[in-house]
Amino acid sequence: MQETLQTLQELQDGGFYSRWAISGAMALNMYIDPVFTEDLDVTIQLPPSSGLIVTLAPIFSELASRGFDTIDGDHIDIAGVSVQFLAFAPGSLEEDAMREARPLTLFGVQVLVFPLEHLLAIMIQLGRAKDKQRLASMIEDYRERVDWDCFHSLLNKHGLAEKFNRFKRTLDA
Fold it and tell me: What are phi and psi of 38, to 5 degrees?
């Protein structure tokens, strides 16, 4: 994991993206008892481009030049860790999460991690079965770790309040 994180930082230092943060289940593991995840989700802030199409080709090309060329779908193996790069749109929930990402040192590498409240709001946004399970667990087992005012503010800002209310009603039933 240390080599993976160092490589991700070197890519930022090389200008392939201006900022990166750990997101997804790995980030969630920084706040709760570990949950299973098969990969490391890395949200990146790409440099401004002149076109509408976003490409990760330069990143994958650089990684291949370093010997990390095993690709499985949208994941690439970096030093034994399956990494999925995620970019975000301006004004998105992920952009807010990137702006508020919290510094943390993992395996001797300084990283950023999405805040818990943003991770939960992203779970509502995605609405996958595994996200609903994790969110139910957060509400039941880790309630005190969440800044609920911040969470509800994010839901309102990004038009997710009703989606959360529908989810909450299924828990109360």
Answer: -90, -10
One of 3.30.300, 1.10.20, 3.30.450, 3.30.460 is the CATH number of 2-114, namely 3.30.460
- Where are the chain's structural domains? 2-114, 118-172
Among 20, 7, 18, which residue's Cα sits nearest to residue 113?
20
Structure tokens, 169: 């009603």
Contact 46, 94 (CB under 8 A): no
Report for 6-15, 25-34, 163-172: range of highest mean pLDDT: 6-15
Asked if the model's pLDDT at residue 50 lies above 80, the reply is no
Segment 83-124, tens digit of pLDDT: 999 998 889 999 999 999 999 999 999 999 999 999 999 999
For the chain, give the percent of residues with pLDDT over 90: 78
- CA pair distance 54, 16, nearest whole angstrom: 12
For helices 148-157 and 116-126, angle between their N-to-C axes, nearest 10 degrees: 40
Sheet holding 75-78, edge to edge: 71-72, 75-78, 81-87, 40-45, 19-23, 109-113, 102-106
Gap between the terminal Cα atoms of the chain? 42
Query: How far, in Å, are 18, 34, 73, 102 from residue 31 at the CA level?
Result: 25, 9, 28, 12
